[in-house]
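seq/struct pair 1
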Amino acid sequence: MTIQVSSEGTDDIILAASASDTVQDFARLVLARKDFSFRKNQDQICQFVNSCLLNLSNHHSVDTSGLLPALASPSGSSLLKEILLMPMGVMNGVSQFRLSFQSVVLPLIGVLTRESVCQSTMGNESNTIYATVYAHRQRFIKEGIILCMQELLSCGSLAGSSFSIGHNRWRDGSMCVVTSLSSALLAIVRLVYQVITRIRDARVTLADTVNTLDSQAQMCAKISNSTDRDRFINGILVKEAERLQRIVSDAKDSIITFLDVSAADPSAPPATGPNIAHLRDIYDPPGDLSTKGPRHNNDLVKISEINILPTQQEITCSRPPFLPSNSIHDAPHFLAHGWKRQVDTHFRLYREDMMDPLRRSMVAFLSALQHTRFGEEHRLLKHKELRKINDGDVSLNVYGNVRVFGMTVERNTMGHIGIGFSQPPQILGAANKERRTEFWERSKNRLMHGGLVCLISRDQVVLGSSQDASTPTFQLILAVIVRRDVESLARDDKMARISIALADPLQYLNMLNSASQKSSKHWFLVESPGPYFGSYSSVLKALQRSMPSILPFGKYLAPTIEEQAQIKNTKHIVDPPIYARAPAFQYDISVLLNGQECRLDVNNAESIEQATRTLQSNSTLDDTQATALVDTLCREVALINGPPGTGKTWIGVALMQVLLANEAQSDCGPILCICYTNHALDQFLEHLLDKGIENIVRIGARSKSERLRQYNLHEQMLYHDKPFNVQNALRVAYEALEADASVIEDLERALQGDCLTWENVKGHLRLHFYDLYLQFDRSRNTTFSTVDMAGNQDEDENDKDVDDGFTKVESKRFKNLHHFDRWRFGHDIRENTRWNATVRESQGRSKKNNAHGSKWNRFAVLDSDVEKDWRLQVPVYKKIPSTDRPVHLLLGSDIWNMSMTERRRLLDQWRPHIQQILMNRLGELIKDFETLNNDKNDAFDEFRRQILRNCLVVGMTTNGAAKAQDLIQKLAPKIIICEEAGEVLESHILASLSSSTQHLILIGDHKQLRPQIETYHLSSDSPIGKRYNLDKSLFERLVTSVENPLPMSTLTTQRRMRPCISNLIRAPLYPNLIDGGDVHEYPPVTGMGDNLFFMHHHHPEDSKDMYGMESHSNSFEVDMAKALASYLIKNGYDQPGDIAILTPYLGQLSKLRDALKTSFMLIIDERDQEQLDQKELEEEANVSQDAHAQSGARNLSLENHLTLRTIDNYQGEEAKIVIISLVRNNTANDPTASGKIGFLKSPNRTNVLLSRAQHGMFIIGNAELMGQEKNGIWPNVIDELRTHDRIGEGFPLATQMIRSIA
């Protein structure tokens, strides 16, 4: 039986007892008593620890998830502390004063390192437990387990001098099982690993402990090595002890502050590519390492401290950022070679790929804004105007008249800001809501959820004024879109609405002050439509949080100088995966042999050869596929190179069959499968379903497969009950969020309006104006009511609202007010004024009655309630304050003797300070919301993790993997298979790796399309980009590395292309490519005189717009492609997959679609369709609904299918017949033409373009232009075509019966 101990936890090292209700219930009963104490009762402690061990283990199906939050609770932490502080010893049985190391402490270590604890996504609970351990590290770790372990090692046995292994079970047989010294020490190493990876200070305070553990691991390897199992565990133990050493070492500064040019390795091959001397001359490290000082406030040495969102200083900084060279061995860097440098490099380059388009867009807009007069800002809302101002160099969407609607308190959007802005010019004022809705539904790339936007305003400085030019006149506020609802966007014909989360919550006060409708500032919402921040941020955060010292496969993927030398000495041999090195492990590969028995031992060369021969002769795999499969199973980092049509997906499915057939003994599920496109992922997973593999989960909502609907993670979450700990965490998070909602609303009112309440003011007054505070606070329990001359309380229903410039309050609300409210509203002044008016009125009536001789008592109504002069017994006029004193004279005066002018002045003086206090409080609440939302998301991720943990296959796209990095890290898959690896950025692969990864399989072709990036000057095709190579995949880097090339398995038999087509790529790219399968038996293309032909012409490209922004197009080629497609369809090629029209350019795709949509059922990829929609919207075109893909189906036969695609979105696909429109033709009748063919010169893109066709391929373009020597592999292609007379000015047709379209 194979024993696996290669996970991060100890579920397979410290084995819990068999499931038992009695044992499981004991821990829950103890934890339910808040005041329970063990009182040093070791028997109870032993029962409790072993009960916890059983509850938290992964070897039963009972939901015991409630135990983890119970252990992390205050009472649970108290019990844990009680155990941790007890002395321990190596002894037989139990003692009242010392815990038995074997019977109690080892099970406790098992509890602390269960998979359900260390891999839980609910980090607060796990972190609380490890923080408790760390707080008592001296007693528990240093003076306890380390000393006990040293004693056992000295004795050479886990039994020690007086302990019997047989005693390592409780009386009823419910104790854990630990079988060896190696297992015990490995558990301790993993406990320390969890502590030092979670608590940064532990990397310093536990450094001596780590050194001791390393020594003990070496000693243990010598003592306990009698069996294969011991040697296997010892190998893992030594490796993980060394990992602890690397973590401690990395905590120290390892910065290279001086570059020694002579330090280059003299044995290294001569440098190629960028000039190393030049790179050293221009080297300017980041932050304080630079001799010029930091570039801005986000230019930092440690990537973990860099804000992923840029700052205003960073956006407007004119000094180039620090961008390290990539894949250039001797290039300068402040970090030594290794994982730390590799992660730093890809973080900075990948972030710059996000930053560059944003920076250029923002700077372009700021420049345009600076040159726009006040009152003419509406010009900036149109692309044409922006192009005029910026000479056509602009790529951004601008929205004007931004308004702030306040902070939301809804459950799922708490702390987010609601804003509105003018509808885009295309639909501004459009009365038809359906039209507005259609616009926003089609504008998928506008204001995407998770996208980065910038709010920009400027101060009203008159152009040409004498104001200092260095004075900042612009204000930038960065935010992320958190809610994009089409209904909210389209509801109003003038204004659209979204919700955003601010990068700096304290900027909200500025928005309230200056973006309100009262403000004279004009605010714009600006977005760069290029990079999608959501996918960047997830990967960047994962790279920031990664610990380079624990990443796997360092000697292959990021070797140090020492490791490079070792690999050279071993001739680049790659070790087998850790799980395959386990004693007695052998792959059973009979699943590919129709039941024929065959096993593969990766440690036995003869077994490897035998397995390869058996697969070659008895499976459906060809020879190179069989060899590649065996090689992959034997290498922990495996590369499979598959030229077009050689069956990369087929070999991937075969590998999955073998790996899953051996999952029980490898314990390596679930396997993470990553594909570049949704189409490829769906295809791959459907192949698994065809093979009977159904325990799969697909992550992502963009699947087009109905077969996979039930396997989607979202659907799975609907069918599973949430575990107790998830339910409890969600309840706590939601309750806390809702409890803060009322506080948010109060702060909103106080910040948005001018109204200050006593709750807002009292803290400030108590600290700074205590005498005024006392005056207000004396009558805090006093209530007031207005009394008129008749003794009636003021309940006048017709009393008008008070409007004193601060707020409006109904008269009924004047009752029961606090002293401060009476004072700020001036109720006392109003009452006194009313009193004086009543007195005057009474005196007037009295005089009138006296004139008529009346005996009416003029003071009767005042006898009981009215203030009188006691000497004259007449009513007294009350003083109405009317002074206008400065603030400093008001601070010591009577608050009731202040006029309303003085009160306003005092309030105005307090308001900025109080608003800042409120803003700080709001910032705290927003951070609290972020924490609570993270807790909520962690709870959902834990629910997802538990679903995924029980499946065999998890499938996602690279973008999906980027967004789900937190979940992937906690899922910690041991096997990762990446399809289309040549198209995947290295940063995406690095972000998916964890310390648990044991087997990385990359399947791809580095000679096909490279990863897509946003910034051209970072790409390998750019002259300056050759120093950065951001679009060089990890797959390509490993295959082409000069210093450290890894072995690669290559598939050589293609089964897609007719031989005359495969010849085009064979000579220049794949000299060993073999034509196999049925490609020699393909029928000729019906109606055509040749199966491969290049139609040469000199018709020029279409003119661009005046700003040069229009994508390339060629109307002649559109007409020819349409005519040829119509002809071929008439000859029977009318089904999906029969004909595909490919073009390199979006502009040509747009014209092809417009020309073909009325005649054919067009099949357009969703990525191309989104780009087409965006292009049309930017051109402010009112495109009707029939412009969408497949719109041509109306009134058409459903048989006339035609695939239309840009080449960048067609890798991995194929069609019987491919029509190619090359577009470029800029030499005829144009003496100024450059003769360039743009990115068509790229061999990678040309390779994909020419390798999609099965039966026939027909190319339209300028053969003379393409055949120029400077144009990549095109000269080879043109020569091959000319050799076989396949170039002419018209397509050769065959005379056959042509049926008409029905």
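seq/struct pair 2
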Amino acid sequence: MWKPPKFRKPPPVPVYEPTEEEFKDPLAFISSIRAEGERYGIVKIRPPPSFNPTFALDMEDFRFRPRRQRISELSACTRVRQNFLDKVSRFWEFQGIALKIPRVENELLCLFTFHDKVQKLGGFVKCSEDRKWGELALSLGFASKSGSASALRGHYERILYPFDVNRPILAEDLYLTKQNLSVNKGSFYNLPQVINQYLRNIQGDMEESKPETKIIGGVENKELAKLKLFGAGPKMQGLGISPTLEITDNGRAMRKRESTGKTDSPRKHADVTLRCEKCGAQCAMSDVVPKLFEVPKDKWHCWSCMKAFIPSLLKSEKFGFEQSEREYSLREFAERADEFKREYFGLPPHNIDIDRVEEEFWRLTDDIEGELTVEYGADIQALEKGSGFCSRFNPPGSLEDKHYKDHPWNLVNLPVAKKSVLQYIDGDISGVKVPWLYVGMCFSAFAWHTEDHWTYSINYHHFGEPKIWYAASRFAAEDLERVYRNEAKDLYNHNRDLMHHITTTLSPAVLLENNVEIYRAVQNPGEFIVTFPRGYHAGFNSGLNMNEAVNFCPPDWITIGRQALKNYRVVQRYNIFSQDELILKISQEAANNNSVEGSIVTLAHQDMKFMIEREVNERNQIMKLIRPKIAKTRLKNDTYCGICQTAVFCAYVVFDRRCNLKLESDEIYEVAEGFVDQGIEKGRDNLLCLLCAISKLETCDVKPQHVNLMVHWEISELEELTSRLKKTLADYEDWEVKIENFHEDNGTLEDFKELLEAGKYYDTTRMYQNVRQTVEEAEKARVLIEEVFNSNSRPILTHNDLSTLVDRIKTFPFTLEKTGMLTEQLRRANSILDELKYDDLNFKICENLINRERSLLFEIVDMRLIREMQKVIRWLPKLSSNYKGLDEAQKVLEEAYNMPGFEINNAFMQRLKRFEADLEQARRYNTQAQEYLNSTDHTNFVTIDCFVENMRFEGKAYDIVLMRQFSPQYCVDLSRERKASYAWKEKLEKYLVPAPDCDEPSLQTANKLLKLSEKLQLHPIEVGDLHERVERAEEWIEKLKKIFIKKGCAWSLKEVLLPRTPENASLTVKDIKERKKRNKSTDDDIDADDITDDMLIDRTARKGPCKLQAMEKQELEAIKNIRADNKKKLECENSTYCSCQRVAKSTMFPCDLCGEWYHTLCHRRSLQKVELCIRCVRSRRPNLNQVYPLLTELASIGLHFEESEYLQSLIERVISWQTNYKCLISNLSRNSERNLARATNLYLEGLLLEVSCDDQTFLYEAIKEKWPDMFMHEPPEGASICDETKTPNRKRRDKDADLPRRLQNPRKKNKGTRAQIEPESDNEDDDEDVEDDGPCAAGQCKRPDGNKVEWVYCERCAKWYHMFCLNVNPKDVRDDPDFVCSNCQIIHAAS
């Protein structure tokens, strides 16, 4: 969305408070402030307290009809966007499609700004060819360059590009000159033939990389090549269909398809047929050129009907303010205005800060979606309604006050004052000679404009809230108009006199952003605002107020008025009055010895000479071009040129109707809406001023008899009047000659003052103003000279004031006393100041200069710099001092620039500049060093080394001194960090070497080195390499853990891979449970600061082959001992078994490795051929095939660690076992005790291995077949051995039970687990069963719920029941180890 610039408050205008004496003559006072006022465009005048006129009109009788203003339409920026959006919307509406404003990055896209920027980049095709969409996205303020670029291109192609193609007269790259349009009027509208020609060349164009230039009506048109993006049918080769489209004369599109032998999927909307709403012509949607982006939902029109629509699209809408339907009295409007402001701001109208109102007003003007409308009683004619001052125009019953009725500041009297030129205009022109009244409400506004004919204007605030004014002087007028043309180009193209409409404004922020000097004034009640010629001004009302304004013309306006007419001719602005007529009337009055102000006569005489010269030149040019018929005429009414609308008076040209004079489109004048009709009709087309007639005669072939030169004033008459006028100016010319020759007469100031007094009759002329100013300056200079040479004290001056005074005195046409002595004093002061600039200035010389300065007759402020120079000399050693950092050096530099002495002496300034350059160089080094330090990437030390070397040795050790002087923190840090990084690299090379008994470096040392690298800010590339190797090693270890270690395992990976120690082998089940609870990582988190070089040495104990063999023997012996102990328990009475350490009962099963017996109620059998208990199962016992890939991967890691060594030893142990197995199998045919012992040992060794392989199973089968009794276990007394084929008898629900299992974990639902009747199970798989719940085996399960749901297992039917469903007491169940349900009891009793 378009975002206007933020409002900025312009600087204020001057405010004048004239004295009672100055206030007596308005035009004289305004002439005295004219020089400054012209620089600002407007000034504010605050009258003396004695001026307090009462508002003369009655609040009820004064009635008016205000204008309605929609605030958002005032701004040129919003209106051009609204107009453009309206045109695009109407274009698509004519195509039957409702326009929807697209969004980009969740913001509405401003189509006008988007279209304008694309056109400035060369148009859609140019942007696409040059790939400018990303650049365009950034210029529009979007964050994502790549993401927004494609979206912008799609939106333009879909919405705006068809609009450009269909209105070529508006698209810059399709502009047809007016000459071609006038010659070939049918070229633009003959679009069917154009598109046929384009489509006949489609296939040829597909093979060419550069599109051909087409010709339309003799004009090159590159836009046809762009149409290929929107033509009907596939455009690319290989799509299967080659389209052919012909458009008939009536615009109906007929499409033919030629098969190419290939199939193609039907295009979207290919079968949709459109019917023209106007003529009924039908066309397939796929054949419409340019293509439509959706099916029209409303009325669609064909090309033929579009021909009548496009001209209305090109035509700009006229804009003006509507009159309100209601007529208000002043009291009624005041009530409405106060109520509006109260409701809008929610506060009493007079309690709202004016700055808040101002910011809100400009926000509203830039709000393109704003709907706020206010009313403004503007241009109310005092001629009809009366004036706020007492005047002859006021209706009966109005206030009468003789004093203010005749007061010179009464706006009714000011335009016709004695020294005003307007008094010689016949009739009362509203707004010019007669005031206009303005009744404003909050936010009502007037747009940027100049006064008619660039006259002066004055505005008086009668009562109410402040009016805010903004102004630009005539020196900034062209800059302001340039900004208007750029911001409102479309409006300017159709309204060249846009600046005179007073309907289009621009925010001060836009103008200030474009470097236009504007100023601001706040006009309060009782204050005047005066605008100067060609001073642009605009503003708005902060609330209810009443103002009155009128124009006036001092004599100096006459010259400016001629400049205004030149401008009016260009913009075709009609004239309010004829300046020629005005000047001629003034001249006739003066020539007839009537009383005319001398200054008016003087300037009128100069303007008469200009008129004569102009008339002679223009009439001579006409006579050279053609010999027209000359006729004498007498003008009775205002007559205007038919082209430029200039008022003609002395002579004009009338073309006969028979010559068929035709005006070009840019010459035709249209009266814009929004103006108050002043009864002035526009000029006739065949009546032209002399200048426009010359232009037409040069371009048109006209016969002499068809041209009439109508003469109102002959040249001779003008010359005669000028000569008569010159006689009346004899006194003024004599006075002017005396002024010019006064210097030669060697007169005095008193003589010059006498001349000033003699010329008071010409007080409004520039000559008189210059003489008066010279006298005032001379008086001030004389007073100062007297003060210097005749006073006991030394007056204080600046050197510049003294120099200016002496220079000004030299320009006086007279000589003042003691001027030579003043000049000598200035020379001595200059000598002192010049010596301050010497390179060898020192403290002693400064003392001498101070003594010389004291000898002067006045004290020059600049001489105080000598004291400053002494401070500088004392301060200079600081430039060579060493500083703790850049900030301290910057403070010293700022301190130096605050000392005025440096600006005087070039040598000192050069030293300061060199210090500043050194500081800037140190800052650049510091910034570069900071970038290196803040870099997150691993550093290439070659770049840093080069930077450090350049920093140290560049320019003959210059930078070493620079570093020592400023000590830039990041440079110091970089040097320190660089040393630390190199020290780390040395440690890497020193300690990360293969261990003595290993071919690879240690992982332990690598981790410690990485820990040390965390302290580095500069990370060498080797850190990344080392980190990658460590990560690979750790990933390998994690893979190994996943293969071997079960969740919640009591054993570490190291303990699993190594043979069991006797201590671990003898652990009880209770000990193993305790290990599970406290099993945590044993890795120590060592702080990097605690790592010493000695700690980097790898001291990992290496377990050689001999030691591992010993550990294997110890493990085997320990297992044999455990087996023997467990076998002895079978022979003893009351022995305890299992993890519960209870006597043998029910069904039990033995562990094949340790020989311990376990209750099936406590532990679940694995149903494997080999049964291992919880004490003997330490890992997942993966298959050997799962381990081999890890060994292969280990070779590429390049680091040594314990786990890899232990895995290798385990694999070697497995391989050794497989070798022994093969030997045993080969000798197993002999049934001997020796083979039995060997087989038993080998079988136990296989069970001790933490990996599984097929050979272990084969060995089990072989032993079982050879020695069947070896696996025939006798259970303890009182127990029976568990049958491997039956479900284990236990009081827990088994996974294979026929009861349904819940798919979700009950614990995740915050439900309690079931009560456990028997001792806690140690089997990990049982933990999962505890979490199951569901209906029990009872006939009618009651589905109990709660924190604990207790179950019981029937030993006979092998089914699970809720205790609640069986009405069983949990205590009774605990006392009964062989529980039988009630159903089984009934069946047993019956049997």
